[in-house]
Amino acid sequence: MVDMSSRPTPATPQEQADIETLSAIMGGNLDEYHALTLLRKHNNNLEKAASALLEGDTGAEDPMYADLPRLEPINAPVIGPGPRTPPPSRPEKGVIDLTKDDDDELARALRASLEDHTTRFGPSERAPDPNWAVVPSNVEASAPAGMSQDDQAMSQAIEASLSYTISEDVYHELPLEQRVRQGDTPVALRPTLPSETHAALILHGLFFVPQFKHTIAHWLPLLEPGTSEMEAPTTGTAYQAWSLLETYTHMDYVRMTELTADAPLRAFAAECWSSPAERPGDVSARFYEKLVYAIENVLQYNNINNPERKQRRLMELQYGEHNADPDDINTHNLSVVRVNVRSSPESNDLLSALSAEFAPPDTLKNKATAKRHVIVEPSEVIAFELIRDATPPSYDATLGRKSERSLFKYPKSLYLDQFMQESFDLANEKRMAQRGLLDGIKELEARKKNLLHFNDKDTLADLRSCLYYYENVAESKDDPKRAEEIKANKAKLSQIIEKIEEDVRSIDTAIAKARDEAQGILDCPELQKHRYDLRVVLVHDGLYGRSHLYSYVKQKGKWWKTVDYAVTEVSEETVLTDSTGLHLAAGPYFLIYSRALPQEEEVAPAEWPVDIKNNVKHNNQALFSHLPPEVLSRVVDPNSPPSSPVIPPTPSEYTISSDIVEPSESRGEPMDTTD
After folding, report:
1. What's the EC number here (predicted)?
2. Which residue, 305, 425, 585, 623, could crosslink 390 as a Cys pair with Cβ 3.0–4.6 Å?
3. 397: burial class by Cβ within 10 Å (0-12, 13-18, 19+)?
């Protein structure tokens, strides 16, 4: 027996007219009972009821979000195919006639607008797509048809690698008169072997890290037992540190544009980058770790200025799993932090990558049981190897083509507080709040997608196409009733479109607000005590050879790019946004940061040993003596004269085909300078 108490009261004449309109929108598939329920649910507001109907609410149940509609449940029947190209002001022969005299014209127009047709009424509103071009913008005109920029770049890399001959990549020297240093332009540090370029760039870059340079300048080895004067070491880690001391003194005072890096590379037994298939970041990281071990060891155990053998965390941070008892934590030393370059543009940056390594999302909820890595003691210098997946980007069905690789972002300054043991509780609390905001953003984006798309079609654009039909195609043929129907349908569609647009604007505003809050939630004074500034960026263009690795270094507020022997000034924006090698799974591969310093400390000159400085100054005088008069007249030497008398010169075993001579004091042998 039917419970008549649950049946609604009969519809009024106005309600009956509105019910017919709602039923027409659904192509006659909405029964009178549900239409009346839906109408009364929205206080007899036909606009709201129609909007809710298109959003999936048929009156059968109460949707979860009445004010944020969804379009997936629309089940309007599909009519046959037909052209939907923008028609002229008067329909031509062949255009489907939607002006026939049946009563559900609006429903048929709506159904037509939602069909999976390749064209529609009205001008296109899609964003420009490079694939529509006669020659797509991401494919060069000379490329084979259909080859993307990624594929073309990879093809070029393979071709270049196959044609590369290492014996042809020789060490070239500029004429002597072109190798005179101009002003404060940094000196290039070059290896004879192209396979050692990665290591030379590491040595070169560390010179521009203030903490490292000043530490090396301040270091001297302990006196050998039974001796009263310091002698240059010839073995062990002290010999390696001494080779840097000599090299860096030359980089500061020499008046040449380039130096050979062979002596320090031999001292550290640099590993070769011997194959195009090997990532230069991997071999660079191994060399850097070897260098860090030697320097940290010698600073603690063979340092005349550290007789107490105190440990100094210059380049090795200490990390471990978070523990409520900091005295019971199992710690490890780390000199290179390896981070994975992500494919998603939203997480393809250094801070997001570090968060994924140190604070994965699944460790945030329960801080009591979370096994998460934290920095126990930071170092003054920290290096990052950027590891890229060489796999080409996947095919994106929504775009109809392969997705492009996105640029990896790294900041000019970053704070490590959020990854440190001392800030664990506060950072965890902030991250949980951030995670909630990000989850909320995903929900809002899903709602917006449901609102604007149905079966991969742009619903709003289709509704506008339908409106375009009534505004530009439908004709009354001097029938007043027909003219009134057209006018009413235009008004209804306009109201629906306006409601959807208003909801979209509201969602966009909420997303922008939540995103700004999420991005800045960790930017609080309590988590900004340990600031690190970018000092060095090493870049790989994707190919193999001497000139395919280069560096950016910062000196006295200016950024300089070094490619082999060429050193040029660049903007900070260039350093932070270099996209070279992007489509070859290459690009920036090694970053070096160090603690932020006051300006006066950053630019303070290093106090190098006097004897080595004198050697360099004598080398400069020898260089000047070999220059043509017209070149010598333009040379400016900012160095003071040597503080020791000139010593009879002896040839240098470290110069490459050198005619310049230099004195030998510091090691009982000549110094290392190219000429």
Report:
1. 3.4.19.12
2. 585
3. exposed
* Domains annotated on the chain, with CATH: 8-125+444-516 (no CATH), 167-393+403-420+530-602 (3.90.70.10)
Interacting residues of 502 by C-beta distance below 8 A, sequence separation 6+: none
* Structure confidence by residue, pLDDT tens digits, 463-499: 888 888 888 888 888 888 888 988 888 899 899 999 8
Residues 6+ apart with CB under 8 A from 80: none
Beta strands at 549-555 and 317-321: parallel, antiparallel or unpaired: unpaired
Distance CA(51)–CA(503), nearest Å, equals 11
Q: Are strands 336-340 and 381-387 parallel, antiparallel or unpaired?
A: parallel
Pinpoint the alpha helices (H) of 343-423: 350-358
Torsions phi, psi of 199, nearest 5? -70, -40
The owner of tokens 């965890």 is 428
- Using CA atoms, how far apart are residues 269 and 277, in angstroms rounded to an integer? 22
CB 153 within 8 A of CB 543: no
Q: How far is CA 105 from CA 20, 45, 74, 210, 413, in A?
A: 12, 21, 18, 76, 62
Q: Output the six-digit token pair for 358.
A: 């140190």
Quote the pTM value. Answer: 0.69
CA distances from 428 to 258, 318, 372, 374, 515 (A): 49, 20, 11, 11, 19
Token pair of 264, please? Answer: 């320090």
Q: What is the DSSP string of 463-485?
A: HHHHHHHHHHT---TT-HHHHHH
Q: Which of 391, 512, 527, 373 is nearest to 441 (CA)?
A: 512
Cβ pair 531, 594 in contact under 8 A = no
Q: Which residues of the chain have pLDDT under 50?
A: 1-6, 61-103, 116-146, 162, 368-369, 397-399, 648-675
Written as one letter, the residue type at 448 is K
Give the up-direction half-sphere exposure of residue 606: CA atoms within 13 A in the CB hemisphere. 25
At residue 108, what are phi and psi to the nearest 5 degrees? -65, -35
Q: Minimal CA–CA distance to 387: which of 287, 280, 315?
A: 280
Report the alpha-carbon distance of residue 506 to residue 512 in Å, rounded. 10
pLDDT of 279: 93
Q: Rounded distance, CA 99 to CA 476, Å?
A: 8
Q: Please answer whether residues 42 and 52 qualify as being in contact, where contact means their C-beta atoms are separated by less than 8 angstroms.
A: yes
Note whether 39 and 19 are within 8 A (CB).
yes
Residues ≥6 apart with Cβ < 8 Å to 276: 161, 164, 543, 544
Q: Is residue 76 a contact partner of residue 114, using CB atoms and an 8 Å limit? A: yes
- Cβ-Cβ contacts under 8 Å for 265 (sequence gap 6 or more): 191, 196, 199, 200, 203
pLDDT of amino acid 27: 60
Distances (CA, A) of 437 to 195, 432, 504, 518: 48, 9, 19, 6
Give the pLDDT of residue 87. Answer: 35
Q: How many CB atoms lie within 10 A of CB 649?
A: 16
Residue 532, amino acid: Y
